[in-house]
Amino acid sequence: MMDAEPDPEPGPDSSGESRFRAFRQAEALVESRRPLDALKALEPLLEEETDKPSVQLLAGRAYFHSAQLRRAERAFTRVLELDPTDHYARFVLGRTLQRLGRLTEALAQMRIASAMHPIPEYLEAISEVSARIALRD
Questions:
Q1: Which of 16, 67, 108, 122 has its CA 20 to 30 A from that of 5?
Q2: What pTM did the predictor assign?
Q3: Three-state SS string across 24-87, please?
Q4: What CA dihedral angle connects 81, 86, 87 and 90, to 10 degrees?
């Protein structure tokens, strides 16, 4: 007689644990410049956790790094709907709009991000976009 495998019934924490592992794996993949692999790892979370700012932000970063800019814009906008105080989401939304050529909108988002959290990276981006707008006009 063969030993029976334990029921594949997940315990109370296994679902949360697997989502946590998927998120961390996707995060590592984004950091190692593998955004498409990160999006694959994020797929189940994007279906189950549509109202989690952290999931949307990570997806936005992966979309941004894989040049899926409209999807990135939607993800970052969703983060800001859920948490309007997220300065980083506002900044990367600005970067996304910049890459889409929507410089005036980009500048507005970057200025808000900088007002919320004035770090050199944000200030440099504002200068860069302002200069591009000045050259265009």
A1: 16
A2: 0.85
A3: HHHHHHHHCCCHHHHHHHHHHHHHHCCCCHHHHHHHHHHHHHCCCHHHHHHHHHHHHHHCCCCH
A4: -30
**Backbone φ and ψ of 117, nearest 5°:** -150, 85
pLDDT tens by residue, 22-53: 999 999 999 999 999 999 999 999 988 889 99
Domains parsed from the chain with CATH numbers:
16-83 (1.25.40.10), 85-136 (no CATH)
Total residues found in the chain within this entry: 137
